[in-house]
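yo

u said u wanted the structure for the complex thing, so here. seqs first:
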Amino acid sequence: MIITLWVLITVVFFLFRIVPADPTAMFVGAALDPVSQKMLKEMHGLDKPKLVQYVVYLNNLLKGEFGVSIRTNHEVIGMLRDKIWNTLFLMGISMCLAFFLGVGIGTFLAWKRGTAIDAAGVTLFLAFRSAPEFWTGMILLVIFGYGLKWFPIGLMLTPGAIYSGFWDKYFNWDFVHHLILPVFTMTLFYLATPMLVTRNSILDILKEDFIELAQAKGLSDTRIMFRYALRNALLPVITIAPLMVGFAIGGQVLLEKVFSWPGMGRELVDAVSGLDYPVVQAAFLFMGAVVIFGNFLTDVLYRILDPRVEIG
Amino acid sequence: MQTRRFLGTLSGLKRFYREQKEIFRGEKLSIAGLIILLAFVLLAIIGPHIAPYGSFEVSVEKSGFVPQDKSPSAKHLFGLTRYGHDVFSQTLTGARTAVVVGLVSALMVVLVGGNLGLIAGYKGGWIDEVIMRITDIAYGIPFLPMALVLMTLMGRGAWNIVIVIVVLFWRTTSRVIRSQVLTVKERAYIKSAQVAGASDLRIMYRHIAPNVLPMTFLYLSFAVGWAVIAEASISFLGFGDPDDVSWGQMIHQVFAAQMFREAWWWYLPPGFCIVLLVMSTFLIGLAYEKVVNPRLKND
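structre next:
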């Protein structure tokens, strides 16, 4: 797991070193005299050989230092700390909703298997899954933001909002009010995957002998559905969770752009355009860590739900 | 010799057609998906030729006035953009980008991922170990952020988008095909082929590959959908080629001009096209899903 993360940051590091464009040229411009240009390069360590730069970079990482942004000259860690939380809140809530609703609707559709409701449900949610998040987001913004004025048209807090500390910032109505539209957009997009997996895996399990036995015992449909089928159907749903988290963390880039959400995704787009590699490297490290943590969490959950599994 | 080989291919194709027909029989949703997909392929071929205006053509009225931001009219079916371009023509032309990028990158994703999965699954041992470790690492890469980095480094262009999609998407197919191969490989007829002295290549492509074909088609249809969304997303973020006409690029322009509040005619057509095209691939996938897992069939 750690090796995966290490390979990832190494790839990103060297990708930015083989780029022909000079990052310093992006922000100093040709107008700056050669002496200052040289100074800036020295400041970011760009004058040293690439391997030396790499060793220094890894060494600093181990000490918890992420370097200084090329664009803003601020410490990367300070720039990203708040944005990471903003992204995690948006993503975490949406993913939980997508999973709970997906499993619920999937169970319902499996119950109604073969009916028009089943076909309509599958088609409807596949349509939401097919619509790009940014486009759905724009439509929802036009309807509920500009048109009905129910929700703000972007940002995370009303400009000028004053808050005292972490809890105050995220646990207030203003935040929730700004959160609803992006969460709704993201949930609609990601809901179809857990829904279809739940539906299919229930259909699969309904053909097992123990279900037939339960029916023969005269147990009610509801009981068979929830106590017998759904419980066993949850395993495949959980295995897809880390994949979805990996996908979603990348998809944040789109959502945050549409809703002007001050998170990692938006920061990353700006950093990539500006060849601000210290910020990009830190962002990749963070996203890779989220994906890996998701994998770890899946392993743990799997072990709790299916005691037969031994994880080495 | 030549004719015999030709006839052999022909009967192979016939059999393939019969099998596919069987897969789609009674699957109304999947047939609808197939029809939509074929319609878009047709549009990709003729779209740019039947477009009434050039994609970047600006129509100037007799008075010398250049109309912009016009809602749909008889002359401009889907209206005009802020820059005076015809939305209908751009939507038609954009079909070619979407279909070509979608199909080509999906084919390559499945070709690369499928073969790696086949080799890893059949050969086992250290080859399997190496391929699967690389797959694991590929799973840790967040798609869009890495796509943006690669687009910045390689330069903007439709073919670079294809390369980026292939580099980042092969992982899924490879893992899925490998696990299928692992089960197929244990079957008796594979063992007997090995005993009969068939070469590894022959066993892999003659005996195992046909059995993992439905799974391959399932992931091919998914890959088309993912690729279309990926292309649209990359273009939307402004990392596509501004000289190309694509649906994502159109939505990018609306957003960049902050016109999406008023100009619904500008971003709804390309968006609906993306939804329909992507959805058709998912609907087609429903039929293959039932082949891969027969228990999903209703009885």
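The mean pLDDT of chain A is 81. The two ends of chain A are 13 Å apart (CA to CA).
cya
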